Amino acid sequence: MKSTGTQSIARYMRGTRKSAVEFWRRFRKNRAGVLGLCVVAFFTVIGLLAPVISPHDPYKINLYEAGLIYAPPSNQYPLGTDQFGRDVLSRMLWGSRISLFIGFVSAGIAVVIGSALGSLAGYYGGRVDEILMRIVDIFLTIPTFFLILLIVAVFGASIWNVMIVIGLTIWPGTARLVRAEFLSFKQEPFVEAATVAGAGDFHIMFREILPNAIFPAIVNASMQVGSAIMTESSLSFLGLGDPNQVSWGWMLNDAMKSFRRAVWLTVFPGIAITLSVIAFNLIGDALNDALNPHLKER
What's the number of CA atoms in the CB half-sphere (13 Å) around residue 97? Predict the structure, then answer.
């Protein structure tokens, strides 16, 4: 019995490893996607290592030290300083930490909510599907950014409020994708086999169908991370971000008052936001090609 169980686990691990190798082989064919992955990996690493590699305290104000107000890029301050004498490079490193964290958590919230509601709608159909899809339609008709502005203005602009609000407003797209996949998968033989075997609805939904239906949501989530970063940057630029945290958007808000005097305050966070958003979209395209190879063949 133990030998059979061990052999089954070994076969499963070999199959998983083979699938991962095949996925990576297809993914790396998309050079733009690999480039996007490298950009995201770079920002993620410097964000995680920000407490270690930052040359200066990103929050330290140096108003009384000569030459540190609007200091241009130099050997001591490679990206210059801002109107308070704070090191822009250190703030960029810490900003990547906050901006990416907001993007990943917001997209994660959207995936959880959208997958759950899309699964219920697609599996049960009928009245359940009708009610849930009308809720989705209502959310899709609401101007999302203005809703986020309103909620953040009312409940405060803490980093957690921003993440939760963004996640709660971008889930409808995921719900539609998962629902569509459920509608196509729930008539498959493996679902009928699970039903005949006596499996419950939740087992069939979340153990049988969802693992096969989640791939479009994963592709969409990679793009939602970039969208969440852009949304947070826009909120911070308008002064509705968390003032106690360094993010690329909040750096742009600070730079707005000093654009003509210190252009580097705008250029570096602007480039970082642009690169990260483009990178996540490139990754999404590559994931779509890797997870749906038949589409590429057509």
Answer: 18
Joined together, the tokens standing for residue 25 give 């082989």
**pLDDT (tens digit per residue) in 255-289:** 887 877 888 899 999 999 999 999 999 999 999 88
Question: What pTM was estimated for this model as a whole?
Answer: 0.85
Burial degree of 13 (CB within 10 A; 0-12, 13-18, 19+): exposed
Task: Compute the radius of gyration of the chain from its Cα atoms.
Answer: 23
- Which domains does the chain show, CATH number per domain? 35-297 (1.10.3720.10)
Cα 217 to Cα 282: distance, rounded to the nearest angstrom: 16
Report whether 254 contacts 265 (CB < 8 A). Answer: yes
User: What is the DSSP secondary structure assignment for residue 58, as one 8-state letter?
Assistant: T
The one-character DSSP state at 276 is: H
How does DSSP classify residue 1? Answer: -
